[in-house]
Specification:
Residues 1-25 form the signal peptide. The protein is of the alpha+beta class and 337 residues long. It has 16 helices and eleven strands. Strands 3-11-4 form a three-stranded antiparallel sheet. A three-stranded antiparallel sheet has the order 9-5-10. Strands 6-7-8 form a three-stranded mixed sheet, with no helix packed on it. Helix 4 packs parallel to helix 5 (96-105).
């Protein structure tokens, strides 16, 4: 009995001698020091930066700092300086060459996919048009249903809203228009800018008028105006490469590849803060949820901080899957402050 008491006493002393993080076995920041987070300038990225910061600070007890920036400058800084530590929404295709260099160098890795379906491009119509015409399901159905999109100024043809001039999607969408031989029944209408395209969608939906055109997601436009993406064939890299070229001699129909949107992180976090790395490996948001969140933020003219608060309060079924239960409890406790 005496020997048992001695052993128990030794065990208690040994546990007391361990660093507090080890004794409690709680998720923590390890040796990470201050963790820097890229805060991009668009709504979804700004919100995700705020969400990441609050989980790290309130849930894991980390020291954090936000670093403002945009895709290419942030990617370049991560390549050359390994800063910031985390970019919660890095559009890889926008900085593909820099991304390839980071992966080759080994100082940055993709912790997870920011969105479950990736970035999505395509041709979209309002939900009420699909409800009114169940035959309208695919881009290949447009030619036979062009009258649904008749332009009042030119009722002999439908109006197709093209990608804004100068954007990378312009050449692709124009070539796809040719591949579908839509010139016989539609004319391409250019709004001149992304903001004008957004305004055109808003006007059409407000009046329940026809609309078909290019757009991308996740964005507040998809969620707010309840746009439905028309079906497209599976992505074919050979066909798609031709669609990206102004001199594509024989454009063929193919869908867009999902855009790679990464939660990018510096590899030091894997060793310096493994609990943080584990959280980042699970950090992904369903596209439909982000569309809805951005629609709410647009209607409310919400700041990134306010949008993050809305996300935490309204989508616990999403973010609570990213972290252990005790981390989620600490985050929730701070939300109530």
């Amino acid at each position: 009995m005496t020997s048992i008491k001695v052993c128990l006493t030794c065990s208690a002393l040994a546990l007391a001698a361990l660093p507090s993080g080890q004794a409690r076995a709680e998720p923590n920041c390890g040796n990470a020091g201050t963790i820097t987070i890229a805060e991009m300038t668009w709504a979804s990225a700004g919100m995700l930066a705020q969400v990441t910061q609050r989980i790290l600070q309130d849930g894991f007890g980390c020291d954090t700092a936000l670093q403002p920036g945009d895709t290419v400058p942030v990617a370049s800084s991560m390549l050359t300086r390994s800063q910031p530590d985390i970019a919660p929404e890095l559009w890889v295709s926008t900085a593909q060459s820099v991304w390839d260099q980071m992966i080759a160098k080994g100082n940055v890795y993709k912790a997870s996919n920011t969105y479950t379906e990736g970035g999505i491009e395509g041709w979209w119509v309002p939900d009420y048009m699909v409800e009114a015409n169940p035959k309208l399901k695919s881009v290949t159905d447009l030619a036979a249903n062009w009258k649904d999109f008749a332009d009042p100024s030119n009722p002999e043809k439908g109006r197709f809203y093209g990608c804004p001039p100068g954007w990378g999607c312009e050449i692709i969408s124009d070539n796809l228009f040719k591949a579908l031989d839509l010139g016989k029944t539609f004319e391409v209408f250019s709004t001149g800018s992304g903001e004008n395209l957004k305004a055109s969608i808003a006007r059409a939906v407000a009046a329940r008028q026809p609309f078909v055109g290019w757009y991308w997601g996740p964005t507040e436009v998809i969620g707010k105006y309840k746009l439905v993406r028309l079906d497209m064939p599976a992505y074919d890299p050979v066909k798609f490469k031709c669609l990206t070229q102004t001199d594509c001699a024989n454009p063929e129909v193919t869908g867009w590849a999902p855009g790679e949107v990464a939660v990018a992180a510096t590899t030091r976090l894997r060793t310096d803060a493994p609990d943080v790395a584990a959280f980042l490996s699970k950090m992904t948001v369903p596209n439909d949820d982000m569309n809805a969140i951005l629609a709410w933020a647009d209607d409310a003219s919400a700041s990134p901080e306010e949008t993050a608060q809305h996300f935490f309060q309204t989508y616990p079924q999403v973010w609570k899957t990213w972290v252990p239960a005790d981390v989620a409890q600490r985050v929730e406790a701070k939300l109530a402050d």
